[in-house]
Every structure is written in structure tokens, then in C-alpha cells.
């Protein structure tokens, strides 16, 4: 059968039919020839084209530049962190219970726990915050993860590796362990809490050494003196160069065009080495001409110099900085080559220096601090010279400064980029003036260890600077000129590496014996931060003095002038919390030994000064034809330490890897340490890897865990690995063992020291020196300098402000008397979180919790039946149970001070049933100190209750009559006693009406809290008023949002308040005899009173001459009871008046003034508020009017029942 695939469509006729089948040799040759022809054609088509020739025969050659990225990986840190709670602050009491009833949710508690422990961490590109909170009393409900917020940000929006959440609600110890983790991750390097120990909240202490222990830690962000670094640099005589430019002068050009190019080349690189017949132009062999900035230190204590010199200054010396008046001549160059760019740059730099050098400003020069004390008045302008006087106010070690000749302020050109000397050149490290900011950390309390977290932004940037790697050598440029090639070199626009240096000074806080501040003493360590992009990086340093105390630490920036003059082998500690190794160094100061700890590595300062980007092609300068190095390649463990008893292996078992008991079986740890030979001249950096082994049996050290003998590996490229070793040399690492090392017990009576000793095997490395022309380094010290020969073509992170900020300070101290805080009977929460895009500030946590603390229940659902005393403890939102617990609980309430018999438990049970029946609940947190009686009394009306003391017992009672089920009662109120003229002590009855302003109608604006499960709360409002009132009346606000979560509760409280305001208008008080009295606060009494209200219309007078009765209304004939006043009498008299025909019948009333009496008898119900027994052994009763209808039923209760009388909005 023939395959259909073998038939070619007609459309493919013009395409060769290539088949994989048997062929003859002839066919093969033809195919090869055909393919060969095709490949040749393709090679012709793909071959590089010759450069097009310009019309003048000159070839254009462009060498590219470099453009770096402008987008970088983001780093994250915390902008702010929370403060610790004040010592002695009350522990919050969360009280509440989340319920769903009839489809309506209510309850739940929003807690804001109190911070009691905090510590920050730096991990290079991010920070982490670890903290512990006291949420409240013990045995609270556990929050769901989606009910935890930091500020307004939910914690469950994070990946689990970004946080760790702990919760401990157990009675007894509130200390948080690893087993209390409820969300997130821990114990891994990428988790927010990489700590592996069971005790989660540990910190470095004085006795803990390099091991953290359960000490107290407090993290805070300094508010003042928190930034440090040098900035706003001013060059000191350093010459300025133009952006290097390759100027081609084709040999066949000739004429005026060639002359112009030669002068251009002269402008950029000078005219040195010109041939005798001037037939060739110099081929730009130097680094570029140096033009004066016309700025520099020109005198010290009145003495000037004629060349660049270094002088030593002391405190009190006076230096003068000069700003030159003139600029480069406009016609300095021939052939109309412009000098305006050089002139303008110089003018702008002098204006900037003039602006910065103001009286009172401080500047760092080398390692001394100078203050501007005077200057030539006015602003600098062209043609005007400015002298600025500076006084040395502090010398921090070396007092060297640099002086420059005054003549440099007026030179047109200092050098041509070659043959540098003190007479014509100042390097970029020549003691520039640097604005200075120093940070100070002062311990807030006696502290064992201070951890300083740093946020740094360190970088250099090239802004179009010539790509020096593409700059031709002089020979190459001459060849290109001969070949008629016009060469152009691109620029570099990119960020590149910078190193920023600083050191630390220390002193005790407070005053010395003379009443003055202690002097600062520097630790002998220089630190640096490396960066190459405009993003923050986070590092830390841990400082541990030899004694606990309050110390001050000053972070002092170091200038390039100081760093570049350090010895050749000088090392600096490069901070690198992301990739660095753990380091620990002891420094002895006059104030004792300070141990400095952190992460990073040592680098040679002189190895980091230069940037490869500033170098051209060519070989490195060397006199050697072959370079030979002998470096360590392998190590063999030869011995552990022994003491006089020959039994010491404690160092091997516990250090330097740490306590193996802190880790699990099989845990592998790698550390790096530096070994040295006996002379101290040879060092090698060693990786040491060991594994924890536990077999469940105590070994000879009485410990279950030990480290295996380490595997050793040489780090050949590390700065601590020198190249002067010989095969077979021995290296050793020795260390003191602390007395609390559990493995030190076998060390006998000798000193507690131990060592590792290794044999060194080496390898010889040989490589040839480079041949050819030497490379040119267009600028040295670029990676550490504050100024540049190239001005703004290189900008730095220190140009306008300090590069470093103290992001946080951790202060830790060992627990008092070595007793670890247990936070007994408290519910505690722990949180570790890494900073990220969503969380850049450590805001106050907020927790939504379904259930508060457990209290003694008075009633039990569903029928609200009483519960036996002490029979049931559960979370509750019943206000009566809250008040009862406040009065009786011995742990967090007043139970230690109030005996049980002084609390009316039965009354509380009745009120608890009333509150449940009417859904009046308390869901909130008592956070602040409270006067208990005032607090309960103030809240009770919002729950329609009265807080009373009855028969010596505290009680909470309903403010309205209720029935046995707790419902509002609509029957006559029970009267406990009746009072009238017969049992009210004479002249003791008093009646007081409320002020009119207190009786005005109002509309109640009630605020309550609305929140569902796992939602942030929202404050809602409801406005309630009498229906007939309309929109008239004032508004009064009542904030119930801290405890009320139901709209219905808020409405009920509003109706009660409105009814009380409308219906209760007066109070009474009187005395009565205690005989047979059975009465208490909260009881209802009836008071019958007889009154004679004063009415002006009833007044009158009886005329003396004829007994005529004169009255406002006129009196009809009859007999009246009157009260009258007889002229000359001393008091009023009561009597009767008989009127006949308009005249009095009794002559004795002639001339009196009278009023007709209108006696009335009234009966009202009152609510007893207070009963006291006075010194006269009579009972004082105070009561408020309790309005009832004609059947004795409470009008307030009827208002609560008949809600249609009110309007509620919304």
C-alpha cells in the first residue's frame, strides 16, 4: 500500500523535496556542494559590515556605556513600635459572652492587651518584633486567628511563615512556652520566630553569655539623637575634574579643526608630553586635568602653608576655611574652547559651601569636631573672598587635619592629571569638612545588655560618568588616530558599592565625683555598612558591659580621611545580619570590659576603598612576574584542651556551638571561627560543623546532650585567612569558659580556659603577573569617600543627610534575684512578626474574643434557675454576676476585704434573672483603676438597676418593679411602710424639687458597639425621644459602646432615662423613730402629707376703723380658717374669720393682715435611697419620688412596657 503522506501537494512544488533515504556517493557530493554554497552565501549575509566612512574619510567608533537598574528588591522594617505598659498598671478584666439568640448576635469582647515584654530583631533585609502581652485574668477564651488585628490589619492576611502567635490561658504560670503556639510557625530559619528553645521569650543577660535566658527585655525607638552619619560634604582643596572625554584627533585631519581638537584635549587632559615638532597631539596619558574648587582650609592658629600639609590640632585651636573670590579666566583656552562649564561648577560649589558654613554649625574633620565661630559677613559672590573661622571643640583620638595653600584659591589649573605632588593636588580623602550627626543611646534603667538596631541606606551612584573600562590606552588611542577613527565612549548611570564607617563610644550615665559628666571612651573597633542600592538594610549590635548599670553609647561616624590613613592590615567589622556570621569581641575600656556581639565579618579597610568601575583596562601594578601564595587548604584536629588534671573537654561539648540542651537530637549547626598560630601573625577562618547527640542517658558531665567532634573546613577567601602559612603549621583557638557552663565541672581546679588545636595543610598558588600597559585608576577611595573629583557625576547616600538611624533599642536584664517572671493567673499572648508590606508599624493588637474570664454563676440557662454557691464557674455577660464577682472574688475582686455575709446573694440572683429576661448584658473590659462603688453606681442605671447597701449588705436591685420571672411588673408596687404626720419627727420633713434644667425634656443619643464574629467593632447610635415631643428639646449623649452590643439594650436604657426625667421631679427626707421599722434602700414607701400652699389671691386686710374685710377676690359671707398677723406681734397666728355683710364679726381682728388657708392632704409613693441612724438615734430617710397611677402601678414600668410612646431613630 502506498502512503498518502508520500504524495506532495502542488503548492509545495517550489520547495526542495528533501528525503531521508538511500543515496549514491554522487548524490552525496552534490548535496554537500549545494549545502556548502548555501552556507557560504549565508556567511556573507551574516558577516559584520565595514563601518561606513564619513565624507571626510573618518570612521566613527562608539563604545557603549553602562546603565544599571533603577528598581530594587524592597526591604521592610517597622516605623514604630509600641511602648510597654506602665509598671503597676491594672490587669484588664475582660467580661462577656458571645450569644446568638433569635438569630441576633450580641456579645463578644474586643481586648487591647497590655505589652509587658518586647524585643526587636534585624535580619538584613527585614526586621522582626517579638512581644508578650497580658490580655487579662486567667482562663479566658482563645481567639480565632481571624479575630486578631494589629491596628486595622488582620493577622490572618499574612502567610504563616511571617508570624507566630502564642496563647496561654492556663491558671498558674502565664509564661509562654513553645507548646502554646496556636498559629503561624516557629523554630525554622524562615519563620518569624526562629528560636528553638521551649521558653519562647528569652533575652541576653549578663550571666547568660552568648546564650539567651528568661530575662526581661524592653524594645523602644529613641525619639531624639537617633540618626548618625556625616553629610553635606565640603571639599578641602580637592581638585575638580571634568567628566573624562576621549578626544580623537585623526592624523590626517589637519588645519583649524585639528587645532580645536588639540585644545579640547588640552582642556580635558593637558598638553604634557607634546612632541618636539608638535606634529602629534598628546594621547591623554593622565587621569584628567585638575581644576581648583577654590575652597580649602588655609590656616591653623594663624599659620598658612605653601603646599598640602597635615597638621595636628588640639581642642581650642582655630582654623580658617577660605572661599576664593575669582574664577577661571573666560579665555583660558585657545581656539575659542570654552571654560564656562568649569567656571559654573566652581561658582555653584562655592555658593553651596557658603550656605553650609554658618555660625554655630559643627563639622567633622578627620577625627576632630569643629564649630563655626565667626565668618566674613554677608553672602559670597564673584569677586568676594570669605574667611570662615572654626574652633576645635573635641578631638576623638587623632587630631590630624589637612591644610592647603592659599594660592590654590586663585589658580586656573592645579595639575594635568599626572605628576601629582603636595604642591598641585589634594586627594578626595584629604580631610573634607563633613556635617556631623552623632546618635546617643542612654539606658532607661540598669541594664545587662543593650541591643542597638540600625537602619541604614548606603549607596553610590554614577550619573553619566565615563565608562572607564572602554577608555583606550594611550597607545591604542594613537593607533586609532592613525587609522582615522573617531572614538566616543559611553557613560555609566548606575548604583554601585559604598562603605560607611562608624565607631562606638561609651560612658556611665550620670555624673562623676566632681558632679560632671563622665568622659566618652571609644571601644577599639570600627564598624561599616556596605550597600549598593537605595533601599534600607537592617543590622544590629549587642553591647554587654562587665557590670549591670545605666550606660550611654554614642555612635560616631568615621570619615574617609581617617579610614584611609589606618594601617595597611587594619580591619573593620562589616555588619551583615542577613549573611554574616555571629561574632563576639571583648574590648577593654577605662570603664571595664565591653563585649560586642553581632553578625557580619571582618574586612580589610584598604581592600574596600577602590571601585573597579574607576579603573581602565590594563594590568595591575606589580614588580613581580609570578605571584606566589601559600594558603591553608585543610585542617586536622590534633588536640582538645586539658588542664592540670587532664580532664577538660567542657569546651568541646558546649562551646562554641552553644548549649546542646537547647536543641533537639540530630540538630546540625555550622559556625565560623578564626584560628591563629602562636605568633599571632597567621590566621585562618574555619567553618566548624557539629551535630547534637542525645541517647537518653546522662554522660559524665551530668547532661543528656553533647556535640559530636566538629568537621572542619577552611574558608580560603575570607579576610582572616592569610597567605603566609607553611605546611604543618599549627593553629589554635583559645577561649575562657564561663562558670555557668554545665560542662565545666570536669575542669578540676585549673583556670576555666579551653582550646582547639589543628594541624594546617597548605596549597601553593602561583599565577603570572599581568602583561601590557598599566591600568589607570581614575579615582581611588571612591567606595568610602564623601567627595569626588567628578562632583555630582558621583552622588552618595551621605550627600544630604545621615545614612544611619537607630531603629530600635533592646534593653535586657536578668530577672530580679534570679526569679523568672511567671505572670501568674494571667492570660498571656505572645506574638512574633516579620515586617512586610502590610505591617510596617507595630500597632496596638486588638483581639475579638467570644468569652471573657470565668466567674461564679448565679443563675443557669435555660430557665435562669439559681445555682448553688460556688457550684458553677463560666464566662458570663450578666451585669449582676459581674458586680457580684467584683465584690466576692478573692483573686481579682474585693473578696479579700468584703466578707461573704456582707453581700446579699439572693438580691443578686433576682437581679440576674431580671437582666437575662430583658437582655441587658455587659460585654466589655475593665481596664483602668476604678472606685468600685462609683463605678457600679454609675453603670447601674444603664441596666435599670440600683446599687444599694441594705441591712449592711451590698445589693444590686432592679430600679423598677418586677415579677417572679424578672419581667416588668404592671401591678401595684409593694409598699413596705407608710409615713405621715404621726411618725415623721416634727420639723424634720424636707422636700426638694429638681432644678428646672434637670427636668427639661430631651432626646437621648445612645451609643453602642456593633460587631459580629471576627469583625472590628463599629460604634452605632440610636436616638430615642417621646413621640409627642417632636424634634424639639436638647440632645444628651450616653456612651455605652464599651459594654453594650445590642441596639435593644441601648433603646431600653434610653426609654428608662427619658421616663425618669419626665416623671421624677422631687425628693424628700425626714427623720423617724427606729421602733418597729423594717425598711431598706430600694423599698417603696407611701408618705401622706398635709400642705397649705401659698396663694396671693387669698390675701387680705381687716380695716381697724370699721372691721371691713378687704380682699383681692372679695370674701362672701361665711367662716374661714386664716393665718394672720396682728401689728406689733412677733409671730403669725392661726384662727377663724367670720364675715357678715362684708365685715368681720370679731373686734380682736381689727387691723390684721391675713391669708385664707387652703389645706390639702397628699399621698405619694417614694423609693427609699438611703437610711442612716443619726447621733440622736433617729433614722434619717432619703427617698425619691416614684410615680404611680391611681392604682398604685409604676408609671416608669408602664413606659418601658408601652414602647409605642417613643420614637427610635434610626
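Sequence proposed for the structure above (1210 residues):
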Amino acid at each position: 500500500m502506498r502512503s498518502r503522506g508520500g504524495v506532495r501537494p502542488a503548492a509545495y512544488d517550489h520547495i526542495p523535496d528533501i528525503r531521508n533515504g538511500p543515496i549514491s556517493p554522487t548524490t552525496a557530493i552534490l548535496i554537500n556542494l549545494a549545502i556548502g554554497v548555501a552556507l557560504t552565501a549565508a556567511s556573507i549575509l551574516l558577516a559584520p559590515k565595514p563601518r561606513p566612512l564619513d565624507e571626510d574619510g573618518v570612521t566613527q567608533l562608539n563604545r557603549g556605556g553602562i546603565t544599571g537598574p533603577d528598581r530594587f528588591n524592597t526591604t521592610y522594617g517597622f516605623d514604630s513600635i509600641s511602648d510597654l505598659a506602665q509598671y503597676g498598671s491594672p490587669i484588664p478584666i475582660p467580661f462577656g459572652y458571645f450569644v446568638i439568640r433569635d438569630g441576633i448576635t450580641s456579645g463578644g469582647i474586643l481586648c487591647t492587651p497590655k505589652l509587658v515584654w518586647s524585643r526587636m530583631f534585624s535580619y538584613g533585609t527585614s526586621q522582626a518584633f517579638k512581644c508578650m502581652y497580658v490580655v487579662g485574668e486567667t482562663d479566658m477564651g482563645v481567639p480565632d486567628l481571624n479575630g486578631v488585628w494589629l491596628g486595622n490589619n488582620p493577622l490572618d492576611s499574612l502567610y504563616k511563615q511571617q508570624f507566630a502567635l502564642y496563647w496561654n490561658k492556663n491558671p498558674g504560670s502565664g509564661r509562654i512556652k513553645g507548646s502554646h503556639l496556636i498559629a503561624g510557625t516557629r523554630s525554622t530559619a524562615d519563620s518569624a520566630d526562629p528560636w528553638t528553645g521551649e521558653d519562647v521569650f528569652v533575652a541576653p543577660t549578663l550571666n547568660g553569655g552568648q546564650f539567651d535566658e528568661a530575662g526581661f527585655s524592653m524594645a523602644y525607638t529613641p525619639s531624639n539623637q537617633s540618626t548618625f552619619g556625616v553629610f553635606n560634604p565640603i571639599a578641602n582643596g580637592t581638585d575638580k575634574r571634568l567628566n573624562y572625554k576621549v578626544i580623537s584627533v585623526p592624523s590626517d585631519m589637519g588645519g583649524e579643526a585639528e587645532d580645536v581638537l588639540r585644545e579640547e584635549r588640552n582642556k580635558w587632559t593637558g598638553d604634557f608630553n607634546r612632541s618636539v615638532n608638535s606634529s602629534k597631539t598628546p594621547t591623554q596619558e593622565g587621569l584628567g586635568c585638575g581644576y581648583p574648587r577654590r575652597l580649602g582650609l588655609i590656616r591653623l592658629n594663624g599659620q598658612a602653608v605653601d603646599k598640602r600639609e597635615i597638621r595636628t590640632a588640639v581642642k581650642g585651636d582655630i582654623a580658617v576655611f577660605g572661599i576664593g573670590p575669582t574664577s577661571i579666566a573666560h579665555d583660558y583656552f585657545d581656539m575659542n574652547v570654552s571654560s564656562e562649564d568649569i567656571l559654573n561648577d566652581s561658582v555653584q560649589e562655592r555658593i553651596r559651601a557658603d550656605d553650609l558654613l554658618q555660625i554655630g554649625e559643627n563639622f567633622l574633620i578627620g577625627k576632630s569636631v569643629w564649630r563655626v565661630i565667626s565668618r566674613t559677613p554677608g553672602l559670597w559672590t564673584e569677586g568676594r573672598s570669605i574667611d570662615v573661622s572654626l574652633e576645635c571643640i573635641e578631638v576623638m583620638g587623632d587630631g590630624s587635619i589637612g591644610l592647603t595653600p592659599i594660592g590654590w584659591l586663585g589658580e586656573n589649573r592645579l595639575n594635568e592629571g599626572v605628576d601629582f605632588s603636595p604642591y598641585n593636588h589634594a586627594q578626595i580623602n584629604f580631610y573634607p569638612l563633613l556635617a556631623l550627626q552623632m546618635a546617643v543611646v542612654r539606658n532607661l534603667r540598669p541594664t545587662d545588655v543593650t541591643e542597638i538596631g540600625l537602619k541604614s541606606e548606603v549607596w553610590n551612584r554614577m550619573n553619566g560618568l565615563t565608562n572607564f573600562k572602554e577608555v583606550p590606552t594611550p597607545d591604542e588611542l594613537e593607533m586609532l588616530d592613525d587609522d582615522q577613527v573617531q572614538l566616543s565612549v559611553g557613560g555609566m548611570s548606575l548604583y554601585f558599592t559604598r562603605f560607611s564607617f562608624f565607631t562606638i563610644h561609651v560612658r556611665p550615665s550620670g555624673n562623676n565625683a566632681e558632679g560632671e559628666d563622665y568622659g566618652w571612651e571609644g571601644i577599639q573597633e570600627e564598624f561599616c555598612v556596605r550597600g549598593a542600592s537605595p533601599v534600607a538594610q537592617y543590622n544590629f549590635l549587642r553591647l554587654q558591659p562587665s557590670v549591670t548599670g545605666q550606660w550611654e553609647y554614642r555612635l560616631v561616624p568615621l570619615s574617609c580621611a581617617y579610614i584611609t590613613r589606618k594601617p595597611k592590615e587594619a580591619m573593620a567589622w562589616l555588619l551583615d545580619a542577613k549573611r554574616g556570621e555571629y561574632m563576639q569581641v571583648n574590648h577593654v575600656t577605662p570603664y571595664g570590659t565591653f563585649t560586642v556581639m553581632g553578625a557580619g565579618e571582618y574586612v580589610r579597610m584598604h581592600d574596600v576603598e577602590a571601585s573597579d568601575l574607576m579603573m581602565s583596562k590594563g594590568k595591575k601594578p606589580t614588580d613581580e612576574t609570578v605571584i606566589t601564595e601559600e594558603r591553608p587548604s585543610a585542617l586536622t584536629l590534633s588536640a582538645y584542651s586539658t588542664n592540670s588534671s587532664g580532664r577538660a573537654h567542657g569546651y568541646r561539648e558546649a562551646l562554641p556551638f552553644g548549649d546542646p540542651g537547647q536543641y533537639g537530637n540530630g540538630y546540625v549547626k555550622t559556625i565560623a571561627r578564626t584560628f591563629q598560630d602562636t605568633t599571632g601573625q597567621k590566621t585562618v577562618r574555619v567553618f566548624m560543623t557539629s551535630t547534637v547527640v542525645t541517647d537518653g542517658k546522662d554522660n559524665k558531665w551530668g547532661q543528656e546532650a553533647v556535640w559530636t567532634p566538629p568537621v572542619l573546613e577552611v574558608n580560603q577567601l575570607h579576610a582572616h585567612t592569610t597567605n603566609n602559612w607553611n605546611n604543618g603549621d599549627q593553629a589554635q583557638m583559645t577561649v575562657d569558659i564561663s562558670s555557668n557552663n554545665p560542662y565545666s565541672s570536669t575542669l578540676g581546679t585549673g583556670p576555666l580556659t579551653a582550646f582547639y588545636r589543628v594541624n594546617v595543610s597548605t596549597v601553593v598558588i602561583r599565577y603570572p603577573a599581568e602583561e601590557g600597559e598599566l591600568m589607570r585608576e581614575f579615582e581611588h577611595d571612591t567606595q568610602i569617600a564623601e567627595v569626588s573629583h567628578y562632583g555630582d557625576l558621583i552622588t552618595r547616600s551621605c550627600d544630604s543627610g545621615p545614612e544611619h538611624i537607630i531603629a530600635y533599642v533592646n534593653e535586657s536584664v536578668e530577672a530580679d534575684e534570679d526569679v523568672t517572671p511567671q505572670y501568674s493567673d494571667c492570660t498571656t499572648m505572645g506574638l512574633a512578626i516579620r515586617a512586610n508590606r502590610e505591617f510596617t508599624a507595630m500597632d496596638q493588637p486588638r483581639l475579638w474574643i467570644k468569652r471573657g474570664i470565668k466567674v461564679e454563676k448565679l443563675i443557669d440557662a435555660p430557665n435562669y434557675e439559681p445555682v448553688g454557691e460556688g457550684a458553677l464557674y463560666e464566662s458570663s455577660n450578666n451585669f449582676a454576676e459581674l458586680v457580684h464577682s467584683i465584690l466576692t472574688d478573692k483573686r481579682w475582686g474585693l473578696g479579700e476585704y468584703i466578707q461573704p455575709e456582707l453581700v446579699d446573694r439572693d438580691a443578686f440572683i433576682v437581679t440576674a434573672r431580671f437582666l437575662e429576661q430583658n437582655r441587658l448584658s455587659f460585654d466589655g473590659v475593665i481596664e483602668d483603676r476604678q472606685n468600685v462603688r462609683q463605678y457600679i453606681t454609675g453603670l447601674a442605671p444603664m441596666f435599670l438597676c440600683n446599687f444599694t447597701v441594705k441591712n449592711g449588705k451590698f445589693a444590686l436591685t432592679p430600679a423598677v418593679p418586677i415579677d417572679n420571672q424578672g419581667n416588668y411588673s404592671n401591678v401595684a408596687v409593694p409598699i413596705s411602710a407608710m409615713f405621715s404626720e404621726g411618725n415623721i419627727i416634727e420639723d424634720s420633713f424636707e422636700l426638694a424639687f429638681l432644678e428646672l434644667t434637670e427636668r427639661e425634656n430631651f432626646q437621648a443619643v445612645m451609643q453602642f458597639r456593633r460587631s459580629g464574629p471576627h469583625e472590628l467593632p463599629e460604634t452605632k447610635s440610636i436616638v430615642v425621644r417621646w413621640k409627642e415631643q417632636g424634634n424639639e428639646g436638647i440632645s444628651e449623649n450616653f456612651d455605652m459602646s464599651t459594654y453594650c452590643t445590642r441596639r435593644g439594650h441601648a433603646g431600653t436604657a434610653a426609654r428608662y432615662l427619658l421616663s425618669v426625667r419626665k416623671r421624677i421631679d422631687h425628693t424628700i427626707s425626714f427623720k423617724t423613730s427606729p421602733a418597729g421599722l423594717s425598711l431598706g434602700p430600694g423599698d417603696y414607701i407611701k408618705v401622706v402629707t398635709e400642705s397649705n400652699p401659698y396663694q396671693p389671691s387669698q390675701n387680705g386686710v381687716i380695716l381697724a376703723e370699721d372691721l371691713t374685710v378687704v380682699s383681692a377676690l372679695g370674701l362672701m359671707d361665711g367662716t374661714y380658717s386664716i393665718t394672720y398677723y396682728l401689728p406689733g406681734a412677733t409671730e403669725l397666728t392661726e384662727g377663724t374669720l367670720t364675715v357678715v355683710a362684708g365685715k368681720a364679726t370679731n373686734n380682736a381682728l381689727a387691723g390684721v393682715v391675713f391669708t385664707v388657708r387652703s389645706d390639702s392632704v397628699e399621698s405619694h409613693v417614694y423609693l427609699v435611697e438611703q437610711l442612716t441612724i443619726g447621733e440622736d438615734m433617729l433614722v434619717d430617710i432619703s427617698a425619691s419620688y416614684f410615680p404611680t397611677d391611681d392604682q398604685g402601678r409604676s408609671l416608669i414600668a408602664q413606659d418601658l412596657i408601652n414602647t409605642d410612646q417613643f420614637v427610635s431613630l434610626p
